[in-house]
Amino acid sequence: MLKPRPTLKHFLPHISWLNVIGVLAIVFAATALVVKNVPQAGSNQILNVSYDPTRELYAAIDKAFIPQYRTQTGVTLDIKESHGGSGRQVRSVLDGTQKASVVSLALISDIQTLSKHGLIAPDWRQRLPNNSVPYTSTVVFVVRKGNPKGIRDWPDLVNAGVSVVSPNPRSSGNGQLSVLAAWGSVTTRGGTAAQAKTYVKSLLQHVAVSDAGARSAGDSFTLSKIGDVQLTWENEALREVAANSDDLELVYPPVSILAEPAVAWVDANITEPNTATYAKAYLEYLFTDAGQEQAAQFGYRPFKPGILAKHADRLPPLALFGIAEIAKDWSDAREQFFGNNGILDTISAPPAAASGT
């Protein structure tokens, strides 16, 4: 039986027996993507390349949008979906494995990466409402029923004997947000950067398993029953607890990060006028009242205050800090924390490398 192993090496290249099947699935999926995720030229098909936990949301969006668009225009769209760790999805669009018509990714910096490589226009944030962020989210805790380890706040995660499940920040937007939220939980409450660094390093040492994405991390926690607490998106927590109400419960920490998943059409891949029209209409739908209502129903926080207020029973007001409280912006956060020789590299390095000796 696999026991949680709270070691830092789970954030480094590592394959446990638990993840062998998942790794093989990723390999086969990546092979399939080469064949499947290229929209047919001249067709009414578009491809949405999205991050890990959005499967249910975009299945519902597609089901509502396709008939509405057909009624308005007479065109029946074929919308393909691809879901995975946000970092891995970005790489697949960059290398052309997936010819995304639109992207709906975990972090603004994910789309900025595509823009810097010339796939998306520099002004992409100005092309849709709310700076192209249709909904927001945050990182919360999922614990075992009754919360036997008494986990209420970020410091509780590094108590002796606490085992944490969180996706790998090298491949997952959820993983990166968990690191950023943990850091900000220290610095936004009066702690120093040095204290935040010590805390995050300790937290990573408590990680029992570090899957490639949010959904596989959730499976490790809920199905394989690894760990005492899972760090995950609010929408994933709501889904998991609803499906496992006898076994799990949701804990909102006193402070967490404001996550801003963003969307954009991929200019380089929609040079055909009709395809461009379809892609733009699809993303514009997310910002309508109907699209906002669907986002709320699936546990995402709509940017329209009135619709968010209607769902306050499931999406309560929270104390969330913005990215500007720990970095200049999302791109700076990515470079500062997850770039080469960034904070994650420093705290993940062996002691000699970390000290520069």
Overall description:
This protein has helices at 20-36, 55-73, 86-94, 108-116, 129-132, 173-187, 193-205, 214-222, 234-243, 273-286, 289-297, 305-310, 330-338, 343-348, 351-355; strands spanning 45-51, 78-84, 102-105, 135-136, 139-144, 164-165, 207-209, 229-233, 248-251, 256-257, 262-265, 301-302, 320-321. Mean pLDDT is 89; it is low at 1-36 and 352-357. The protein has 2 domains: 45-134 and 261-287, Periplasmic binding protein-like II (D-Maltodextrin-Binding Protein, domain 2, 3-Layer(aba) Sandwich); 137-258 and 320-348, Periplasmic binding protein-like II (D-Maltodextrin-Binding Protein, domain 2), CATH 3.40.190. The longest helix has 19 residues, at 55-73. Helix content is 43%, strand content 14%. The protein is an alpha/beta fold and 357 residues long. Helix 2 (55-73) links the parallel strand 1 and strand 2. The strands form 4 sheets. A 5-stranded mixed sheet has the order 7-6-8-5-9. It is globular, with a radius of gyration of 20 Å.
